[in-house]
Design brief:
By secondary structure, this protein is an alpha+beta fold. The termini are far apart. The structure holds zinc ion. Zinc ion binds next to helix 1.
Length: 86
């Protein structure tokens, strides 16, 4: 087990880069960063997106379309609500 508890971090999926990354838990959010409950495991094998977390790229809106299966499993819905209401 690694110990990285000095700073509280939050995992995100960025709709612009199509990548999963982490940042300070206190960092300001926008709707294009999807907060995740946990980092999806490398072993997690999603049949819809093959673990990429997105299924498509939308050239009109210039962002990735997140995989709904992964969203259901990993997205931090409570946090997402806060972002949308805030
Ligand atoms: Zn998926």
């Amino acid at each position: 087990m690694e110990e990285e508890t000095e700073k509280k971090i939050q995992w995100y999926f960025s709709l612009f880069s199509g990548k999963i990354y982490y940042a300070d838990a206190d960092e300001n959010l926008d709707v294009f960063q999807i907060p995740l409950k946990e980092k999806p495991s490398d072993k997690y094998n999603c049949t819809s997106c093959y673990g990429r977390f997105y299924t498509d790229y939308n050239p009109t809106q210039k962002h990735f379309t997140p995989c709904t299966r992964c969203l259901k499993k990993f997205a931090d819905l409570e946090k997402m609500k806060l972002i949308k209401n805030g």
